[in-house]
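Cont'd.
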Amino acid sequence: MAKDTLPVWDLVRTVVEHSRTTLLYGPPGTGKSFAAHTADLGGRTLYSVTLTPDTPAAELRGHYVPVGNEFKWQDGPAIRAWREGGRLVINEIDHAGGDALSFLLNCLDSPETACLTLPTGEMVLPHHDFQAVATMNGNPDQDLPPALRDRFPVCVETSEAHPAGIARLPQDLQAAAKGSVVATDPARRVTLRAWLAFAGLRDRIGPEAAAQAVFQARAKDVLDALRIAATC
Amino acid sequence: MNTVSPLPEALDGRKWVVRQSASGSGSIDTVARNMAVPLGGADSDRFVRNHEMAHGKITPKVSSGKQCIKFGVSMLSLQYCEDLRVHHFLNSAGIECTGSLTEHDTGRCVQSYLASPRDLAALLLSSLHTQDFTRVLAALSERLDISRLNALMAGVRLIDERLQAGRGISRPIGFRNCTIPAAKVFDALFPETGISGGDAESQIPLKRLGLERRPAKWGTLSIKELSLSQTRRVPLASRIRTFTDTGAIMSAVHRLPVDGRIFTRNRAHKGGTVLIDLSGSMSLSLDDLDRIVAAAPAATIATYSGHSTTGTLYIVAKKGRVANAAGLRVARSSGNGNIVDGPALQWLAQQQTPRLWVSDGYVTGKHDRASIDLGAEAQIICNKAGIRRVEKAEAVAARLKR
């Protein structure tokens, strides 16, 4: 890494705190959502949603709920974040179906043009403090519709494991986790969650059983690698 | 995650590319962080993966070719000694070294290496401290007589002892402290061109020199020639002229009526170079010198010995002049220690052949410290330059006459 470039997670923290829309992408289990949640909120409220192909726009925008003998409108997380100037974290944005996608195109539009008319007839404009942080595993240029991709001019690839996640591991697992979380070959990738599970189980049921439970066919190789790395 | 695969990322916490090797062998590039290994579930495949992982951990990120040139060792000896160090490392890490050879492979290897002691030693060395060793030994026992096998084993064990004597065997520094000295012993015991000078007796008895952990160094050598008053003329060293009946220029017409041999041809005297160790118990008399000069009048004879950190090489016979009693006294005055065997042998390696070295084979460096490393270096010089070692000065004349 060149001396004049920031370490990736410092960059993520900085842009998430200051950018209106940010897209974080990279291998699973590196700590993208963690960074989106923990970067300084600046007094904002945090809202978080995880999209699936079946997630309806209503889940983001809001819907009527029965209250006594009448139906009352209830804002969804996106509209609440709009109104209050909160931070909306959208996990797995590449999984958005057509319904959610058309809502997001409007929701994430630039402040000058973003405007939504709710089914109640109310027109809502985004608060100037509103932020959206989206995460995904694939390649945004290939996996996102161009219009949605265009909503995220600030886009950072998380090519390393989050240092805070690594720090939660015992010392002897940190190097292995740091490298394997972002392994180029997906078949060889071991997520931070897997390492955390192994660390937790190892203390209780022993390294062999823990490795067998977490790493399956790779158990022996993982244990051998840890022994080799620890021997000096 | 359900396929077998090594985890080289554990070594440095960086991204690695792992691919399946075409053969059952493995390789690792710690600079580009590439690894090619068998990805099967067999114990032999796992052994290869662990072997390469251990290389990644303890083998320095330097070109082995450059290291060979820098330290004057062969690529083969460097590779096999480093493999041996890797096996020591894996054992110390508590990882089972199952080996990667089948009985069939072992038999085939041994059969193809039978003619080359160097290759057999390399095979033994690379299997030492793994379960392959039992298979290799069994295959060798079937094909070699016991004396040859014992000689091989003695050499291999000496190399292993030297490797283990170095500091930091499980760390990258062990490459310099353990692998390089062991590789020198390997090259000394099993030279690329067969046994030194064609006979095993002329080899330096390395085992006698002891495993010195501290690195020993040669002393500084100065080369001196005796003055005219310290030498005498050797009549035999004059030009030899033989008369023949064929030639181009008639230079002995007076022989026409005698035997018709009117042409002459200059014939060179027997020459060569003799280096004599004058330290400690080694001795040289005027009679010895005369005998050598009589056997090879054109021979250059030099003596050397030293004291503390320096030594002197005196040329006691050259170009028809040989040391007298006073000259010999001067030559003996430079000390009682060896100190400069290595530099003196390097001087000998540049002189006229045949090259003989009169020494008991007990080589020492600065402060007269004996060391197997210096012995190995001296032996490698002898191997490369075809220098033969003889124990006594009396034997030199007979050797030169051959």
